[in-house]
Write a structure and sequence with these properties.
With about 300 residues, this protein is mainly α. The protein has helices at about 5-20, 25-35, 50-55, 55-70, 75-85, 90-105, 110-120, 140-160, 170-185, 195-205, 210-225, 230-245, 250-255, 265-285; strands spanning about 125-130, 135. The chain is globular.
Length: about 300
């Protein structure tokens, strides 16, 4: 069999495995509803939000976002008691990926339906944290934390791994465009520039802590991911990139370190993680950039060809 056919088969197998995990068994039907369904889109294919959310860095960025979000104890209480991240981790990921894809690339009416469904679910998520404080998924303060941690993670990963990072003006545009969905979910005055985003993250610092829930998320994602052993090395490449891109205070709070080291990751250790993250991101980008995939045609109803990473 010619090498090109073997390569294409390998690409199809890897892309199918990735999409089965991220989008679920309904991956192709969801793709048609998002990328190929008729209807007016909110964003153009070349917009900053489409470039960031269509980049392979989203995989490392998503892991970074989960680790960072877990450091807020009230947000973590809601996740731990209601999201089923251990019992149904892939279901949670698939719902999140559908929300991001539909609100970025899908028809406006379909995007609004997804947002309305999430808002209905959020109204059922409330309780009391271990320290006695009440929490609610409709709390604008907690919604804002989840949003800023997520958007910062996606942007940082894109800027680090993309061959063509966003310009400063485009990065501001990304934050502003991402604020639309945040508004719809109940975030009050979401950041609309990189400076606003950085200020918001700084403002939350005093509220962050390494709760048992946060440490459990780190163990679950980094030490015991819910994957067959054969698939774990590829995941760990992306996780290495995620840890590399975390703010230093987040790594210290979570106690992230290399095996056999008592101290948190130092600069040489972080430098060693960088090529691992780049390799994992490049592999994802290669797998998902098949020219036969309608999601990769700039003249389709959706996004430009996925950037394969640096």
């Amino acid at each position: 069999m010619p090498a090109t056919r073997l390569t294409q088969r390998a690409r199809v197998r890897l892309s199918t495995a990735l999409r089965d995990r991220v989008a679920g068994p309904e991956a192709e039907a969801r793709a048609r509803a998002i990328w190929l369904a008729p209807g007016e889109r909110r964003f153009a294919p070349g917009d900053p939000i489409c470039r960031v959310h269509g980049h392979a860095g989203m995989y490392a960025g998503g892991i970074r976002a989960l680790l960072l979000q877990s450091l807020h104890p009230l947000a973590m209480a809601g996740v731990g008691e209601h999201s089923g991240y251990r019992g149904d981790p892939w279901g949670r990921l698939q719902r999140t990926s559908e929300f991001i894809a539909m609100t970025t690339y899908g028809p406006k009416e379909s995007a609004q339906r997804v947002i309305d469904r999430i808002n209905r679910v959020h109204r059922t998520v409330r309780g009391t944290a271990r320290d006695g404080r009440p929490y609610s998924a409709t709390d604008p303060h907690l919604l804002r934390w989840v949003h800023v941690a997520e958007i910062d993670s996606f942007l940082v990963a894109h800027q680090h791994y993309a061959r063509t990072p966003l310009t400063p003006a485009e990065a501001d545009g990304y934050v502003a465009q991402a604020s639309w969905a945040a508004d719809q979910l109940g975030v009050v005055d979401p950041p609309r520039s990189v400076a606003d985003l950085e200020a918001a993250l700084t403002a939350y610092r005093p509220e962050l802590e390494a709760s048992e829930g946060a440490r459990d998320v780190a163990r679950f994602l980094l030490a015991e991911p819910p994957l067959p052993w054969a698939a774990r090395p590829g995941f760990w490449l992306l996780a290495a990139g995620a840890v590399r891109l975390l703010p230093g205070y987040a790594r210290e709070l979570l106690g992230l370190q290399l095996p056999g080291r008592a101290q948190a990751l130092d600069r040489p250790a972080l430098a060693a993680l960088d090529p691992l993250g780049r390799l994992g991101t490049a592999a994802v980008g290669w797998a998902l950039s098949s020219p036969e995939d309608p999601r990769n045609h700039p003249d389709s109803s959706a996004v430009r060809t996925m950037d394969r990473g640096a």
